[in-house]
Amino acid sequence: MTPHPHAPALHALIDGKTVHLRDKRIAEHSWSPVTLNDVIGRTWLLDPDTYELRLKPATLRYRVARMKSGTTSWVYTVMFDEAATHIANDACFVRWLTDWQEVEA
Hints:
It is built from 3 helices and 7 strands. By secondary structure, the protein is of the alpha+beta class.
């Protein structure tokens, strides 16, 4: 028997993980979080031709700094608050080029 296309996402919901839902019929519809209670009793949400379910993608958080020593400049990317504090206190630190950014991995 072929497993349902949403089986991995449904198992993840049962395990307490975050799952997203998207309506394929609406081009601009973005992914929205969905809970197990949202799905229970709403079998139409399981129609793979209309709805997509996915595990919430991992996100990366980073910030970019401009560094300079003499005539040499470079950029430095940090992913943790502790590293950002360390870099901001470095003698070569010039300024932050970005605020904290979050992107799907």
